[in-house]
Specification:
- The relative contact order is 0.10.
- The chain folds into three domains: about 130 residues, Trna Endonuclease, Chain: A, domain 1, CATH 3.40.1350; about 80 residues, Winged helix-like DNA-binding domain superfamily/Winged helix DNA-binding domain (Arc Repressor Mutant, subunit A), CATH 1.10.10.10; about 140 residues, 2-Layer Sandwich (Beta Polymerase, domain 2).
- It is of the alpha+beta class.
- The chain is about 35% helix and about 20% strand.
- The chain contains eleven helices and 17 strands.
- Helix 4 packs across helix 5, helix 7 packs antiparallel against helix 9 and helix 10 runs antiparallel to helix 11.
- The longest helix has 21 residues.
Amino acid sequence: MPQVANIRSGHESVLERDLAQALGELLSSVPWLQRWRIESGPAGRPEWDLVASGPVSVGGKGVLCVECKSINFQPSQFSGLLDRPCPAPKDAASAKVLAMPRVSPRMAALCQEHGWSWYDLAGNCRLEIPGVLLIERSGKEPVKVQPRTGANLSTPEAARVVRALLAPENANQRWTQRDIVAHFADLVPRVPAPSLALVNKVVQHLRDQAFLEQLPNRGFRVRDYEGLLQAWRAAYRFDRHIRRPYFTLLQGHALKDRLRALDPKAEGRLAYAAFSAAELQAPAVRQPRTWLYLDPNIEKEFQSLVEAKSVDSGENLIVLIPDDAGVFYRAEAGSNRVACTNAVQTYVDLAHAGGRGEEAADAILQQRLKPAWSAATT
């Protein structure tokens, strides 16, 4: 591969030097880019760590103004860079670029949202000067660096916090950390409250990731509902729920009546889940099975009342034994039927359920979640 980028020495740090080298390799991967130069903090543009420039095929010049950040740079800090100008000659087209050892999906999404380019030390990138240059690389194993420790959103305790933040019923809620703990005290069905220490850890992590915004009165609220939902979806462990296939001859109203008799007061003994919950919340996909979350303490009662038999194939009941009572958080009660999981719980379950789950999940997102979030923030 020909070296088309001339990299000047005199970098402020080893990280800046390495990121300059990575940028040079990316520019060298484009055969028609020739005679580009990468400078370190040139005169007149000291606010940028690197500036790459050179001729482009449409004529004139392209300029990349690069900000180099360590692995500890958080998405919540990105807003501090947004208004920085990227000066360029009259005949030049320019772009702002964030360079880091590893660029997380969340950071990449923020860059794209605000019109920034980005790249990492492994060579993953999206470098774009609109109408002039586009280099995209993905799938390369990120360089191993030790990031600042954050919260693990896959744990049942962290999931309780995330459900409270995302539930459409709580949209635009002003929270404090103590409010979140107290919020669980009077819930029906009952869900154990997360500890204040755990809430503190999760909230700090979500602030760092720019999912939450701080309010003047020391409280906070969600600023990016969909971004937080996708982060939880990526961390969510659907396989932690025990899945048991059953078959019953009961159908229609007869099955619904027997199920309702198991939990007439909607106390969190069972709830329609996944596809069955979606049929009630945002019908989009038809399928023949009934999906349920079931308290393991009533499984024998369920088998008897519904005349259900465990089978290896041909099931028409999918019973999920949850790893945590949080799946019953703000379950949606209905008239003369079993409650169904909250829409946000339905979404993440469908996203991992296989089959046409993605399609059904998108219907929940478009019809139930987004309208509630949008109405609360307008």
